[in-house]
Amino acid sequence: MKGNALIFYSPSTHRFCGRGEKIMKIELLVPLLITTFVAVLGWYIAHRFNVARDRANKKRDLQIQYLIDAYRCLERASNRPKNYDNNAELESAIADIQLFGTANQVKLAERFSFDIAQKSNAPADELLINLRAELRKELGLEDVDPQIVYLRFNPESVTNSNRLA
pTM of the entire structure? Predict the structure, then answer.
């Protein structure tokens, strides 16, 4: 019968034999299996490392983006007349810092929040300085003078002759 192939191992010849099949030496089969196993294991390990690296990079990118947005929101609201339109943005920025910031940034955000709640006003300079320093470090940028300069225009003092185009 053509469909029924019988394969057996011959201990005397150390070969796998089959009816109508070529003889396969076990000395060739074992290294082939070991090589295949090592290649598959290497691929699996490399894949796991790549997945972990990609996840860490995605987490870092997400964290940096949220903290940049929080920095911009805090800076935009700082040293301006009180404006209730920015409150939701400011609340969101503090929440993002508490979620993605370092332990020190979380403490500074909490102190800023408590000061706002108690006094209706609080300086954000220390928090902004810390955020800027950490973000610059994370992005591989050089250190800068810790003092923050705010550019603010007073709409009442701007006339038609000295407006920016």
Answer: 0.67
